[in-house]
Request: fold
Amino acid sequence: MTTKKTATKAKQPTSSAASDRKNADTKKSPAKPSATATKPTPVRSEAEIAEIRAALDERLQELRDEYQEAIVGISEMQKERLSDSAGDDQVDSGSKTVEREQEISLANSVRDRMIQVERALERLDDGDYGICERCGTAIPAARLAAFPSATLCVNCKQLEERR
Reply:
């Protein structure tokens, strides 16, 4: 029985080793933000919100029109390809395919921008417009003026683009 006690004591760290480990653990863990910390809420008047909403609505309508034009163009290309492909050689066929794929890519890009604007409108309704989704800081007014559907502050956007 005494052998077990000795073995157990040998496995337990000394008090100074335990305190060193405890200090090392506290040094490694970052300070946690306080529970009372809240997201900064940009103070906007009703007039500013209405102006932002009008600009976003206008941009959304422009994008919808552009998207509709792109879809019509793609449909016309598809009709031409199906009805007027007799006599096309491989180069003509390849050129038409590349052109159609480019139009589809542009339409997808417009659709993605539409989604961004719709999301900005939702954030405006929720009261989160102008707050960075990643770090929670206020997005500078100059950034929002240049890119109204921005969801990230400049620093977070730069970090995202580096990846």
Q: What stands out?
A: DSSP finds six helices and no strands in the chain. Residues 5-37 have pLDDT under 50 and may be disordered. The helical segments are 2-11, 15-28, 46-83, 90-126, 141-146, 154-162. The chain has two domains: 44-129, 131-163.
